[in-house]
TrEMBL record:
Organism: Paenibacillus amylolyticus
GO BP terms: recombinational repair
Binding site for ATP: 207-214
Domain UvrD-like helicase ATP-binding: 186-549
UniProt superkingdom: Bacteria
A GO molecular-function descriptor: DNA binding
Pfam families to which the protein is assigned, alphabetical: UvrD-helicase, UvrD_C_2
Alphabetical keyword list: ATP-binding, Helicase, Hydrolase, Nucleotide-binding
GO cellular component: cytosol
PROSITE patterns, sorted: UVRD_HELICASE_ATP_BIND
Keyword Nucleotide-binding listed: yes
InterPro entries xrefs: DNA_helicase_UvrD/REP, P-loop_NTPase, UvrD-like_ATP-bd, UvrD-like_helicase_C
Name of this chain's protein: DNA helicase-2/ATP-dependent DNA helicase PcrA
Length: 725
């Protein structure tokens, strides 16, 4: 251990003790404060604030900070050490520098954005741009109150001023368990830029596999809550993720960042809830089966397949046009007469509907008009008449009012949707609109709706109809929307959500190279950016991959280059590991070879190892066989709500978003992976799930795009040998 390192370690140990003493003191004081249990609202709010602080400080007491930055603000003449932690802690003395600075504070941005060099650095503060010199950038690892590691990534006073990735590589080399975790101590400059971007812009982020998109999105939410405390609230922020298991996988990050109450859900759950649809949504298994289970029989993909069409802006516009035309045909074509001799003319009712209540959406307008008709009947009934006549009128009026109400269109989204697809009559749908819907979409959707079956792909349209006829309530609006795996969302999804969010405040993240659901997702980001005004959207690209070793990334890149052509390749972080192995099944056969691989990887102490098959059917069969051989493995089949880590078997298309210490991809041959971009993307997704080791098995030849042994620079990317035991 060098002298300078030893003195840095001692200095940090001393400082840690002083900090923990102060945090403990503040915590003790709060704990001794009597807990308020009464009914006074103000006191309750204050107590909630104290409780929040107790929780924060008890976390801080275990690991008060993770970084130190020595900064001299221009003109101040003083070089100050700033300690940066997940939770900010003020000193008791007023006017003093904070003891620990919250990672989201403006000055803390220097810790992430400063990447070395002699020049002065700047950060954006509320009072303007602050300039100064960075002297030291130091990572400090504290676990359970013990200082474990001190690593300087920049030191102006040393002869080695360049920032290195050493600390990042150390963190990336750790094995992963079943949950995604926060990265506050190692956020990279390109990620920090996204996390701290202004709120009222639709950010579209193309990030290669493992570039931290999901992680960055979660940190961004925590940042927005801190930076725009007065304007946004956690309950009005939402992250849309692809499925429940993925939501479980990411569920620890926000609480770890001290943020609660942000909605984390899937789009179908949100939509079904908003529509108050009680019926179950059609199982997605059939769609997945069509596109993934029978590689050779995959339908031809074009913009008229149901998923692409129903997610298109042309479908959205068709609905809008139809419903705005419907306004004309809403008021029943008749006068209203509650009993013979009393008449409310159609013209009068039209006046109420078309002028007085014009500013209301259709359903509310109808409601208002019907209420007014009811009041009119009551007034008419008050006119002098013998009791028996009055009674008779009342009875007649009640039944005629009911009959008249039935003549109005029903502004109920599912009913209207069924009318659009000719499953039931009404809805004044122009024939031209129905003809504009591709025949295959018309046929399939009508067949579904006849059976009362609604698919995921129908939800944007249904919610849109809901917003057009009912409007959006204040409590349904969002302050910010995050869409993860956005390449699987359609333009219609985004345009629809845009109506629910103030100021186009979006973070949209995805990877076109992982666009395996291209039968419903976008094919280019322009499909989404064009939905926003030019000055209110921004595009970022994340090109470095943090998940996998260089060897894995180099190999996965060759799949993109050769199989997808337009695929955006990843730049690995300099973290080296074992070579990627492409292995024929041994003479013992497929299952035993896979079992042998599992055994070899298991002894390496990896916490998560997965076998990825091409289809669900194969995953189920393999899972059964391995269980019979005594293995305890999770079968991930799309129905699971939790990801428990350990050993898993799953079809490759369900692995998107997840990661494993080691991944084994089974059956990488030319019948399972056909020579087309869709299958190459699928294999790319599978390969980029691995952090440390990737093994691919095959019987017969590998697909051409997976058979590279060297990349275009002549470097080795895969070997064909089992490891030596
Ligand atoms: N700055 C960082 N420091 C440490 N780890 C990081 C950093 N950025 C990302 N990672 C790690 O890289 C892995 C990939 O992150 P994440 O899952 O967020 O990426 P992604 O872009 O959403 O991936 P994919 O599109 O492949 O699902 C995670 O283990 C995450 O913790």
């Amino acid at each position: 251990m060098s002298d300078s390192f030893q003195s840095a370690y001692q200095e940090e140990e001393y400082r840690l003790e002083r900090t923990m003493e102060e945090v403990d003191r503040q915590l003790e004081r709060l704990r001794n404060f009597p807990v308020y249990t009464g009914h006074d609202f103000t006191e309750q709010v204050l107590e909630a604030g104290r409780e929040e602080r107790r929780t924060a400080l008890s976390k801080s007491a275990q690991q008060p900070y993770f970084g130190r930055l020595d900064f001299e603000e221009q003109g101040s003449g003083a070089r100050k050490p700033l300690y940066i932690g997940k939770i900010g802690v003020d000193r008791e003395e007023v006017g003093e520098n904070p003891l620990v600075i919250d990672w989201r504070a403006p000055v803390a941005s220097l810790f992430y954005s400063f990447t070395g060099g002699e020049a002065s650095a700047t950060y954006e503060a509320p009072e303007g741009l602050i300039e100064g010199l960075v002297y030291l950038k130091r990572n400090v690892v504290i676990r359970q109150r013990i200082l474990e590691r001190v690593a300087d990534t920049y030191n102006r006073d040393s002869d080695q001023p360049a920032v290195s990735d050493e600390f990042l590589v150390y963190r990336l080399g750790e094995n992963k368990d079943n949950k995604l975790r926060d990265i506050v101590s190692t956020i990279q400059a390109e990620q920090d830029q996204i996390i701290r971007a202004a709120r009222n812009t639709a950010l579209i982020i193309q990030g290669v596999a493992g570039s931290g998109k999901t992680t960055v999105a979660l940190h961004r939410l925590a940042f927005l809550l801190y930076q725009y405390k007065e304007q946004v609230s956690a309950e009005k922020m939402v992250i849309f993720a692809p499925n429940h298991m993925f939501l479980d996988y990411i569920s620890d990050v926000l609480p770890e960042l001290g943020v609660g109450d942000i909605q984390q859900q899937t789009f179908p759950d949100w939509a079904m809830n908003l529509l108050s649809l009680e019926m179950p949504l059609a199982d997605t298994a059939e769609t997945l089966h069509t596109w993934f289970e029978t590689p050779a029989a995959r339908p031809e993909l074009n913009d008229d397949v149901p998923g692409r069409y129903k997610g298109s802006i042309r479908f959205m516009e068709l609905i809008k046009e139809w419903l705005s035309g419907m306004e004309e045909d809403s008021v029943p074509d008749m006068d209203f007469s509650p009993w013979d001799g009393a008449v409310l003319s159609k013209a009068e009712i039209e006046g109420w509907f078309g002028d007085e209540y014009k500013h209301y959406p259709l359903a509310k307008r109808k409601e208002r008009v019907m209420a007014r008709i009811h009041r009119w009947i009551e007034m008419e009934l008050k006119k002098p008449a013998p009791e028996a006549v009055r009674k008779d009128r009342k009875k007649k009026a009640a039944s005629r009012e009911k009959a008249y109400a039935k003549k109005w269109p029903q502004y109920e989204p599912l009913t209207l949707y069924k009318q659009l697809f000719k499953v039931i009559k009404g809805g004044s749908v122009p024939a031209s609109a129905q003809q504009a819907i591709p025949k295959m979409v018309m046929k399939q959707t009508a067949a579904d709706l006849k059976e009362n079956r609604v698919r995921e792909e129908d939800l944007p349209a249904l919610v849109y109809i809901h917003t057009l006829v009912n409007d959006i309530e204040g409590n349904e609006r969002f302050d910010h929307v995050v869409i993860d795996e956005a390449q699987d969302f359609s333009p219609f999804h985004v345009a629809l959500l845009d109506q629910f969010v103030k100021g186009h405040s979006f973070t949209i993240l995805g990877d076109l190279s992982q666009g395996i659901h291209e039968y419903r997702g976008v094919h280019a980001w322009g499909e989404m950016s064009s939905l926003f005004p030019t000055e209110q959207n921004a595009y970022f690209a994340l090109t470095r991959s943090y998940r996998s070793t260089m060897e894995i990334i180099d190999y996965a890149n060759t799949i993109l280059e050769q199989g997808v052509k337009s695929g955006i390749t990843a730049i690995p972080v300099f973290r080296s590991g074992d070579s990627v192995r492409t292995l024929p099944y041994g003479s013992e056969g497929r299952t035993s070879s896979l079992e042998r691989a599992l055994k070899l990887l298991t002894v390496k102490d990896y916490r998560t190892v997965s076998i990825l098959t091409r289809t669900l059917h194969e995953a189920k069969a393999l899972h059964r066989e391995l269980e019979q051989a005594g293995w305890d493995l999770n079968l991930i089949d799309g129905g699971k709500k939790e990801y428990t880590g350990g050993h898993s078997v799953l079809p490759v298309y369900l692995s998107k978003g997840l990661e494993f210490d080691a991944a084994i991809v089974a059956d990488v041959d030319q019948t399972h992976y056909l020579p087309n971009a869709g299958d190459a993307k699928l294999l790319y997704v599978g390969c980029t799930r691995a952090l440390h080791e990737l093994w691919l098995f095959h019987e017969g030849d590998l697909p051409a795009y997976a058979s590279a042994t060297h990349n275009s620079e002549g470097e080795l990317v895969s070997i064909q040998e089992w490891p030596e035991v």
